[in-house]
Design a protein that fits this description.
About 0% of the residues lie in helices and about 35% in strands. It is an all-beta fold. A hairpin with a 2-residue loop joins strand 18 and strand 19. It starts with a strand and ends with a strand.
Length: about 190
């Protein structure tokens, strides 16, 4: 699925209210949503329901899309769902979330609003820009491990990366006590 304007007018200037933008379900694996070419990117917005994209199977690649924002990274004011949610029957074969821009919860109903939420299955989350969400940039609610979160820009969210009570085999993320910048090097104390 590539080059679509989902939940917007054809010019992508206005979001049109809808429910879920894209759903991967029913045994669908090996799919690519978006791609490495800029023309392959999908714009997924205007989702006032549960989520911009629902992924319920493993082994898919979601790459280079704009979720809740236009191609210039300006959020649509009516998009207020979680950007991408992986849940239900997602298998142990990881889905890859690569190079997407997600600003998912800029609308008036900010009850949910994670950038990427993983409720089940394995996932690799790499090189995404996740900003301005009312909840976490990335929220791992699933138990166990098998999640790689690397080289993302996660800014301006209510929290950066949130781990549920059994996520990451109950290993909590590091917490910084202090940080310093000296000669172009960032250092500090964390536990």
């Amino acid at each position: 699925i590539e080059g679509n304007s989902i939940g917007t007018n054809a010019a992508e200037t206005t979001a049109i209210a809808g429910d879920t933008g894209i759903t991967i379900d029913g045994g669908a694996t090996g799919n690519t949503i978006g791609g490495t070419d800029g023309a392959a990117a999908n714009v997924i917005a205007g989702n006032s329901g549960d989520t911009g994209m629902q992924v319920s199977e493993g082994g898919n690649t979601i790459e280079g899309n704009f979720v809740g924002t236009n191609r210039s990274r300006v959020p649509y004011p009516t998009h207020n769902a979680t950007g991408i949610r992986q849940n239900n029957d997602a298998s142990s074969t990881p889905n890859a979330y690569v190079g997407n821009t997600i600003a998912s919860s800029s609308g008036p109903d900010l009850a949910d609003g994670n950038g990427i939420e993983i409720d089940d299955g394995a996932a690799t989350i790499t090189g995404n820009t996740i900003e301005g969400n009312a909840a976490a940039g990335v929220d791992i609610m699933a138990s166990g491990d098998g999640y790689k979160i690397s080289k993302n820009s996660i800014t301006g969210n209510a929290s950066g990366i949130a781990l549920g009570s059994s996520a990451n085999t109950d290993t909590k993320p590091p917490s910084f006590d202090s940080a310093t910048i000296s000669g172009g090097t960032v250092g500090g104390q964390f536990h």
